[in-house]
Amino acid sequence: MNVANQLYQLQEVDLALESNEQALSRIASQLGESQVVVGAQTELTLEHQRLEELRRQQHSTEWDIDDLSNKISAAEQKLYSGRIGNPKELANLQHEVETLKAGRSQLEDKALAIMEQVELATLAVASKSSELKTLEAEWRNQQQQLSTEIEQLKTILSELNHKRQLLLAKIDPQAVEFYNGLKKQKGTAVAKVEQGICCGCRISLPTTELQRARSDSLVRCSSCGRILFLA
Ligand SMILES: [Zn+2]
Predict the structure, then answer these.
(1) Which of 2, 10, 48, 163 has the highest Cβ tally under 10 A?
(2) Average pLDDT of the residues of the chain
(3) Could you tell me the distance, in angstroms and rounded to a whole number, from the CA of residue 190 to the centre of ligand 1?
(4) In the prediction, which pLDDT does 2 show?
(5) What distance in angstroms lies between residue 1's CA and the mean position of ligand 1's atoms?
(6) DSSP structure class, residue 206
(7) Using one digit for the tens of pLDDT, what is the confidence trace for 19-29?
């Protein structure tokens, strides 16, 4: 294998290392908390708070109704006890009972309306809660999958690094140094030649250049400066 071929193999390994390293960092960045799950948790918490507030209102209204019922009973007992003879006092008491009953009726309507809201909020909590469970399960699966992919990529990277070491051991160190310098400068150091064209710059190469590139020495493209590799 001539040195251009060896450097081309090295470049193939380097490019594979680069793209796998990019994939690894891209996947690693997806590990961790999910904004969608956090959003669903917040929504569920708010819905819970709303339900608790409604239940508090419901109980408070029920107590108020009980309180009025007790007052109505006491007033009616007094009204029908026969102990009050004064017609004006009786009329006042009658009026008080009616006012209390009207108030209670209003509160009962309010309690009914709150009860309906409690039912709706209970349904909302249940639906948000199951939505969150689904999202969390999806997130756990995704994290699991990402971890598997990360492990696979790490294996690939370690194999590539091993392959790179083996290649480096075979290539003339000066050629490697030259390759590294060109790579830094141009991104890729070696250009394949296909049908007389340099794949690095798409320029047609002179015959003399092609002939030289067939030999063992390192020949650079006169146009882009990359090392020419004839497959
Ligand atoms: Zn070129």
Answers:
(1) 10
(2) 95
(3) 9
(4) 87
(5) 22
(6) P
(7) 999 999 999 99
